[in-house]
Write a structure and sequence with these properties.
30 strands; Aconitase, domain 3; Aconitase_mito-like; seven-stranded mixed beta barrel; alpha/beta; Aconitase, domain 4; 756 residues; six-stranded mixed sheet; 3 domains; binds FE3-S4 cluster
Length: 756
């Protein structure tokens, strides 16, 4: 069995005591989110109440899930920890590295040809360290997690931002960077700022053309792409309980698009039905016994304003189908005349060229069945597709069942292309054009979550609109962005005017789910004999070697770059074509800081090499210092390292020999990542000292041998003319983080402790 019922029972067994204790400490009824958070504290039973949005808290997640792109570096790092097995149940899912082009059979074979090295590596590491492995074609990580691992009241982390999808089954599930996942795999705590709470009360009932997708499209309109930042969104009310479990998953999934830490729903009958349908009646039974802890205390939903930081109410009976986009998921437009008006004013192409149904957001059996009911009507009413249609089923189980039930055949009869059970166009793995950069302006509609420029097909001129699967199908058949299926008719092949009836579908397959090979490979019980082989000449994978401690004497360090203005993790380690090297530290290091603006000439990737006085790219210059045995310093502005939790942004400079990053302020996750890699992440005690740093500066750390918590460090900055400034820098290292520094990295320390 893929999931661990004993672990789930353990979580439930301790829940009552922890929830009761937390309620006493907090001194008021608890929301569901708080119950889950307080029952997953690293310290065990709660001993104090936390301030939302303020306190950093150590948690002990129940599970970890990784996708194939992010898992590479995460597992390479985990291999450094010296452990025999992962400390927490973990799975790896191969879904990102599969391109959509011809259709599932050809595309999957192609992916297995071009990425076999990565897939084989992930499979053997998984097998060795007790990690469940889902083969290419098994499905999209978040659908597979919902079908197999998510459970009400659980906490999981995943190395993908849409990990939040598991909130549909009542979890607190959060997307993290690889470094965080590695910590938990290695048996360490996971830290999170105790989130704020947004309550969304759903009244009324979905009907007709309105789907769960429209709920989150509406929430995105209300909260915008930033409105959920630092908060858990908790949905409740009669509209919530009336909705399917996978529909709840859709809503939670797109919580990532409003910046929310995660979203969740209280345990209800829809979840029980889903658990039973996915062969987890024992989980449902266990959940039923602790029901009261798997939803908020009754007072909370009766008076939400008293208990949430913000409350939104949406009447589902009044909600209509929406299209969000283009280029941002929070720009909502109602179907029909409003779209005609906006599209005309903004010159969005009204003709639609593709409809895409799938992604982790909307690829459940219910989604496919409702969309197919529209496709079937097109066949019955003699309508011809005006746009092309592509389908990515969420999992092999969904695909197999949908094929058995004739759903896929309906799409195929409309000449739709059935792509692999994988991310495909959702992550830009869509071979739509030979030259996407110069491709024409066009509109597409999809049921995915993200619609930023270039996201699906690499074409900056593609206007992507997000909609429910059923609306996506209707618009693709009509071929017009402003088609309103509630009021508009279409002319069929015989010249008759026809209209669509409302979509219909099944929440769950009437004959149950079925699958022949779900694509899961269980790991060996004892993996000690398994050899993980990485070819030394590989371009894409490279085993890591432990970082050498930087020591307590750093003198003569040279300035590598003084970054001007915004310097995000993308500026430090670009994505795009570099994604291919995610598992090869030395190769991906060739993009280090190439996006950062040099404060002295305002150019990118053009810095002075103090050894030769010549200018060159940042990685080359840094490699020259490294070859000469000279450490370097990076200087930056405010919020250095904002953006993502990408650990490469810390590992690459470390690999190349940067010793310290001194900035006006850090994005916190990046600061922690620098600490984990055994580097110095420091802030100017006096921000104006940023201006003192000159292009030819040399740094001498005066009192690094006294590195201690809450103690400033002193640096002598020697300028080219021989003059010097002595500056003070602050840091936020606690003693264990100083131990990481002393050992060379957090993983080195874990390994040492493990060996002891
Ligand atoms: Fe994959 Fe797109 Fe989801 S990339 S994990 S389907 S957001």
């Amino acid at each position: 069995m893929a999931f661990d019922i004993d672990m789930i029972k353990e979580v439930y067994a301790r829940m009552a005591e922890r929830v009761d204790t937390a309620r006493d400490l907090v001194g008021r009824p608890l929301t569901l989110s708080e119950k889950i958070l307080y029952s997953h504290l690293w310290e065990g039973k709660p001993t104090k109440a936390f301030t939302r949005g303020k306190n950093y808290v150590d948690f002990a997640p129940d599970r970890i899930a990784c996708q194939d792109a992010t898992a590479q570096m995460a597992l390479l790092q985990f291999m450094q920890a010296g452990k025999d097995k992962v400390a927490v149940p973990t799975t790896v899912h191969c879904d990102h590295l599969i391109q959509a082009k011809e259709g599932a059979a050809t595309d999957l074979k192609h992916a297995n040809d071009v990425s076999s090295e990565v897939f084989n590596f992930l499979e053997s590491v998984s097998n060795k360290y007790g990690i469940g492995f889902w083969k290419p074609g098994a499905g999209i990580i978040h659908q597979v997690v919902l079908e197999n691992y998510a459970f009400p009241g659980g906490m999981m982390i995943g190395t993908d931002s849409h990990t939040v999808n598991a909130g549909g089954l009542g979890m607190i599930a959060i997307g993290v960077g690889g470094a965080d996942a590695v910590d938990v795999m290695a048996g360490m705590a996971w830290e999170l700022k105790f989130p704020k709470l947004i309550g969304v009360k759903l009244t009324g009932k979905l009907s007709g053309w309105t789907a769960p997708k429209d709920v989150i499209l509406k929430v995105a309109e209300i909260l915008t792409v930033k409105g959920g930042t630092g908060a858990v969104v908790e949905y409740f009310g009669p509209g919530a309980t009336a909705m399917s479990c996978t529909g709840k998953g859709t809503i939670c999934n797109m919580g990532a698009e409003i910046g929310a830490t995660t979203s969740t729903f209280g345990y209800d009958e829809s979840m029980e039905r889903y658990l039973k349908a996915t062969e987890r009646a024992d989980v449902a039974e266990a959940a039923n016994q602790v029901k009261e802890h798997l939803t908020a205390d009754p007072e909370v939903y009766a008076n939400p304003e008293q208990y949430f930081d913000q409350v939104i109410e949406i009447n589902l009976s009044e909600l209509g189908p929406l299209l969000n986009g283009p280029f941002t998921p929070d720009l909502s437009t109602s179907v029909g005349p409003e779209m005609t008006e906006k599209a005309t004013a903004n010159e969005w192409p009204l003709q639609v060229e593709w409809g895409l149904i799938g992604s982790c957001t909307n690829s459940s059996y219910e989604d496919l069945s409702r969309a197919s009911s529209i496709a079937q009507q097109a066949l019955d009413k003699g309508l011809k597709m005006k746009a092309e249609l592509g389908i990515n089923p969420g999992s092999e189980q969904v695909r197999y069942t949908a094929e058995r039930d004739g759903i896929l055949e309906v799409f195929e009869n409309l000449d739709a292309r059935i792509f692999t059970n994988a991310c495909g166009p959702c992550i830009g793995q869509w071979a739509r054009y030979n030259d996407p950069k110069n491709a024409p302006k066009n509109s597409i509609v999809h049921s995915f979550n993200r619609n930023f420029a270039k996201r699906a097909d690499g074409n900056p001129n593609t206007h992507a609109f997000v909609a429910s699967p059923e609306l996506t199908a209707a618009i693709a058949i009509a071929g017009r962005l402003d088609f309103n299926p509630l009021t508009d008719s279409l002319i069929n092949e015989e010249g008759q005017e026809v209209m669509f009836d409302e979509p219909t579908g099944w929440e769950l397959p009437p004959k149950g789910f079925d699958v022949k090979d779900n694509g899961y490979l269980a790991p060996e019980e004892d993996g000690s004999k398994i050899n993980v082989v990485v070819n030394e000449t590989s371009e894409r994978l490279q085993l890591l070697t432990p970082f050498v401690p930087l020591g307590d004497t750093i003198t003569g360090a040279k300035l590598l770059i003084k970054a001007f203005g915004k310097c995000t993790t993308d500026h430090i380690s670009m994505a795009g074509p570099w994604l291919r090297f995610r598992g090869h530290l030395d190769n991906i290091a060739n993009n280090t800081l190439i996006g950062a603006v040099n404060a002295y000439n305002k150019k990118t990737n053009f810095v002075k090499n103090q050894l030769t006085d010549e200018y060159g790219g940042v990685p080359d210059t840094q490699r020259a210092y490294k070859a000469a045995g000279i450490k370097t310093v990076v200087v930056g502005d405010h919020n250095y390292g904002e953006g993502s939790s990408r650990e490469h942004a810390a590992m690459q400079p470390r690999h190349l020999g940067v010793a310290a990053v001194i900035v006006k302020s850090f994005a916190r996750i990046h600061e922690t990542n620098l600490k984990k890699q055994g580097m110095l992440g420091l802030t100017f005690a006096n921000e104006a000292d940023y201006d003192l740093i000159q292009e030819d500066d040399t740094f001498n750390f005066v009192d690094l041998h006294e590195f201690a918590p809450e103690k400033q460090l002193t640096i002598e900055v020697v300028h080219a003319d021989g003059s010097a400034d002595t500056i003070k820098v602050n840091h936020t290292y606690n003693q264990s983080q100083i131990d990481w520094y002393n050992e060379g990295s957090a993983l080195n320390l874990i390994k040492k402790e493990n060996a002891a």
